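Practice problem. Given the sequence and the SMILES for flavin mononucleotide, write out the predicted structure.
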Amino acid sequence: AEPFLNEPDTGMETFLLGTNWTEGTQPQLKDIRGIPDFDFAARQKLNNQEYSFYRTAAGGEWSYRNNLEIWSKVKFRPRQLSDVTKVNETLKTTILGYNFSAPIFIAPAARAGYADPAEGELNFVRATASENILYTAALYASKSIQEIASAKSNSTVNGPQVLFQQIYTNNNLSITWDYIRQAEELGAKAIVWTIDAPASSTRHRAARYDTTNSNSATSALTWDIYEQMKNQTSLPIILKGISTVEDALLAQEKGAKAIYISNHGGRQLDHSPSPLEIAYEIHRNAPQLFTEMEILADSGVRYGSDVLKLLALGVKAVGLGRSFMYANCYGQAGVEQAIQIMKKEIAQDAAQVGISDIQNISSKLLNTRALEETVFLLE
Ligand SMILES: Cc1cc2nc3c(=O)[nH]c(=O)nc-3n(C[C@H](O)[C@H](O)[C@H](O)COP(=O)(O)O)c2cc1C
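Answer key:
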């Protein structure tokens, strides 16, 4: 196996070594310039067990790598002399009808308490309120669903803050239905049902510390359960972990208003496709899906330009998992800074590409020839 770069050389370490920073201590937040810097910073602060849980991925971590490396295969085709002066105003978007300041969100991830034992996920709730982006809370959060709900802001552009609730289904479905009811009562606006974790996954990095899946007890995953779930709630159910155009089409056939393409950050199945490859497969086989339903995506997103590539294929909004977990090592301020970095990069990179409206990006601004070699085409 060839070595690879977990994060590009951002010059951070060189810079820090020229200051009074001591290796193994967390750098100052002001010295974080890009999303990958939060990974470096988290490695300094967290112990090996905690960092490994956040960082781990499945098998030889080839999907984890591919999630990070695939972006460079798709180049931009920047159009110069387009009027991009108002691009900042087009950053705002809607997700299932709710208003947000940017097409990015915090993906559901368990155990935020490793990064901030006192506040855990509450930092995500508060930071997404102040920055007005979406937070999708994880079932296996360090804080209880009640604690998360009570940290919500009452005064956002949507009125009370909009949170989506991620769930795993339990083999005993009555536990799942109770959980959905509870989320609904506490004001969640959508259920994000994770469908790509039918079993525990092979995660050597975290297994060393006996901290692998948070969901090892769960495996009830069928379209029949989806039908049953729809009868349990009036909330929209977003299927998280769609990896093929066939399943995207099936989801639409069964009435899904939104789906979420993801390979779980490469944490479930090694050699599962990246969101860029999945989005491209849908773009080539059933492009209408991007307008007929809302398609969210995550896995491997580290830069504003990564987000733009997914949006250009038709994705509605893009999530980040690990990066926000790492940013949470700085508490709410760190999470806010991560959101601000992403917003700034999305807007400025959009301008560089010649995008005047982030909500309406032509796929012709991408050169996808490299994906054409491997894309799966339906008969
Ligand atoms: C520490 C950690 C815990 C996670 N826990 C969950 C979870 O409980 N439920 C879920 O649907 N996805 C979970 N995920 C996956 C994320 O929702 C998301 O798909 C993934 O992190 C995106 O890839 P990225 O980390 O490269 O941004 C977790 C990811 C991480 C890193």
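Check your answer against the key. The chain has one domain: 87-369.
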